[in-house]
Amino acid sequence: MLINSAVLPPYENRMRRDFIPTVQHKVAISALPVSALRGNLAGMTAIARDFLRVLDLGQFAVSNPERFRDRLDGATDLLLAELRTYSGSWGVARKALNLFLRDSLYNVYLQKRFKLHRAERCFEVPLDGVVAKKLRTRFHRALPAWRGVKYLDPDLSSAYQDFATEWARPLDISRVHLDIYFWARRD
Question: Quick check: is 41 in a domain?
């Protein structure tokens, strides 16, 4: 016998209170395998995961790019402060946040609960060597040299993000999605 879903309360009202925090913790773990922060210590990955596990994702549910960037910059600074015991860099903190935010956007429960779709166009592509190489292949004359994530700073990140936006526009996707295309097609 099928259950008439019209008589059931909305799904979220039936969820366990610990479900969304547990999903967020799982996404923090899967978004940041130890290999994601290459050349860095496993302890740094654990610190980043712990930070992301409790990060207020609701703050990122904004469609205004300046407001989103301010919040992302604030979260980057907070994570960087946590990573200082491992000599973490701004670039490593930003990459960890962008990987986590992208995977949170892709997770149906987190996207719905925190309304992350509102900010999809503001999300940044997680920068790493693969993404930088693809962007430099297309925009090599205009982009500064890529030395690695640990050397990434806000100005260099902005330059790469701006070019990622240019690449994504004719594809009719947000720049955050370029990462999956670049990693899937590593030719």
Answer: yes
Tell me the pLDDT tens digit for each residue of 57-94.
Answer: 999 999 999 999 999 999 999 999 999 877 778 999 99
Q: Supply the pLDDT for residue 13.
A: 54
pLDDT of residue 184: 78
> How many domains does the structure of the chain reveal?
1
- Residue 149 per-residue DSSP state: G
127, 165 contact by CB (below 8 A): no
Report how far residue 126's alpha carbon sits from residue 43's, in angstroms, rounded to the nearest whole number. 21
Query: Considering the domain boundaries, does residue 9 fall inside one?
Result: no
Task: Give Cα 173 distance to the centre of its chain.
Answer: 16
What is the rounded radius of gyration, in angstroms, for the C-alpha atoms of the chain? 18
Domain range for 152 is: 16-184
